[in-house]
Input
Amino acid sequence: MEKTNKKKFSIRKLVYNDKYLIVCSIIAAIIIWIITSMNLSPETTKQINVPVTIDFSGTLAEQLGIEYYGNKEITVEATISCKKYLAKDINENDLVATLQTSTVTSTGYLSVPITVTPSDAAAEFTIERYYPTSAQGYFDVAQNVSMPVDINFVNSNFTADGYVAGDTTFNQNSVILSGPKDYISNVKSVVADVTLENDLTESQIVNLEPKALDSNGNEVRYITITVPEGESSVVATIPILKVQLLKPSVSFVGGSDNAESILDVEYSVDSVQIGALESAALTTLNLGNISFADLNVGTNTFDFDANAINGITVLDGTSTITVTVTVPDDYSTKTISISRSDIKSELINYNVSVRGLSSNRITIIGDSEVLKDIDKSKISLSLAPANGEDVISEATTECRIAISVNVQGTCWVVGTYTANVNVTPKQ
Output
């Protein structure tokens, strides 16, 4: 077999190899240049804007409830010194600027020192100077109060002819004012200025920007206004109402459907000037309900508060409207005795035991000829939830007695009757 000749590595050959020496020389020169540049690089300065952190954690001010009121977007311009090759990589994240809240031990206008330090203790730069070195502001105990919002219409005549503005409603009845205690005490009202277009005929919905004002109408400093209950803003609804002249009317309940043909109804005023939404399409001014249970033979009077009628604004100053209802003289009354056993509970899931009645007699009014044929057999009595309740349950102790008269002709029961009951679940 033939032997393979292997080449042996020789440093001597490399030393005398010109190409190898050239490459090694270049690499060595680069390394020496880098080391020399880093060690001998000139110093330079750089200006960096650093935001100031305001933190009261662990301070006496925090224990006293003191907060800072003023410009919280404070920045300082710090001048640092470092090697030139490092300057471009140093930024605001390498510095920490802090308001020295630990020095705040009282309220009032104070000048509080600012400190600026490297964020890393091993930082390769020094802080030469910074400005400002302190921050002035007002320090006081924080307070929250709730106040309603008022509207100031910048242009008061914004409705078209024949229309008026109704009472403004808000999505929130009040707002929360937060700020220093001494300044909160100077707030006398919360007002939002509103400017609307002219000649309006439709209601307006406006997002408000309320301001806290003192007794002279000047805006109070350092006050923050927020909306409670998770709302994002205060919204006002300004109804635009059409002016109308309407006749008053009432609705009769709990009796005959043709009440107007039976009863004589008179009103203390012939008409009332009101403002109402045009979309409501009102033809009369309904004052409310009159129950047949409140009508006796002869003259009955009922007073209605005109200003309490929903959906309208009274414009002519009418405050009370009296309605006189006269039951004809040919109507009479009849009294019928009742007992606890006459009352039917008509409940599926409960047993009801009637313990007592508000009255053992009921009074019926009707045409004299009709009343002749009415006795207990013509009357049905059942239990119904008392006023303000939805259903009869185990918690019920009092029920209303619902009474119906099963005869042809017009008649009704006068008065309200109740029963004391004991309600238990059926087994």
User: Anything to note?
Assistant: The radius of gyration is 44 Å. The chain has a mean pLDDT of 88. The longest strand covers residues 134-147. The chain has seven helices and 32 strands.
